[in-house]
Amino acid sequence: NRNPMNSYLFLTHLKASMEDVQQTYIMIKPDGVQRGLVGEIISRFEHKGFTLKGLKLFQCPTELAEEHYRDLKSKSFFPKLVKYITSGPVVCMAWEGPGIVAAARKLIGATNPLQAEPGTIRGDLAIQVGRNVVHGSDSQENGQREVALWFKDGELCEWTQEITPWLRE
Ligand code: ADP
């Protein structure tokens, strides 16, 4: 193919696949949606330079909330947590980027918002563990698992972000 743009796109794609490009599941919880923080939270990830691969507003059924938080089943707060997550629509997102799993956790901040650093989403926007506005996968494995759990085939978008050369050399 003689189009130099195609070779360029091919090479950047190849390079991205050789880098530590990961996927993570980010979810704006019902309090974040109710409080009108959707744009603010999405902006944090957009401005950082990550790539949005999937996005939807969704009323989560009880069974899905239980499956998502299955590792916390034995905790005393589990029933309250499931009630919280199903109490209104959530915004489900799949984001991609180099090192994104750990980086997203840093952007989000500590589980308890009063312990979260200023500048993080929870540090800036929340005060209680039971209303901490956002979720982010805690490992690469859970990133894969949660993206597959919350999105059906065909709901993710395969696209080339044209500004990538301005974000990564
Ligand atoms: P994180 O969301 O930071 O990964 P966890 O996986 O430990 O944190 O917990 C999942 C979610 O469960 C938290 O984000 C919070 O909404 C809720 N949660 C955790 N601990 C408590 C608690 N002690 N009381 C009430 N809710 C909690």
UniProtKB/TrEMBL annotation:
Its EC number is 2.7.4.6. Residues 21-158 form the Nucleoside diphosphate kinase-like domain. The active site is at H135. It is an enzyme of class 2 (transferase). GO terms for molecular function: nucleoside diphosphate kinase activity. Keywords: Kinase, Transferase. It comes from the Eukaryota. ATP binds at K29, F77, R105, T111, R122, N132. Transmembrane segments: none annotated. It catalyses: a 2'-deoxyribonucleoside 5'-diphosphate + ATP = a 2'-deoxyribonucleoside 5'-triphosphate + ADP; a ribonucleoside 5'-diphosphate + ATP = a ribonucleoside 5'-triphosphate + ADP. One of its GO terms (biological process) is GTP biosynthetic process. Its cofactor is Mg(2+). Belongs to the NDK family. This is nucleoside-diphosphate kinase. It comes from Picea sitchensis. The chain holds residues 100 to 268 of 268 of the full protein.
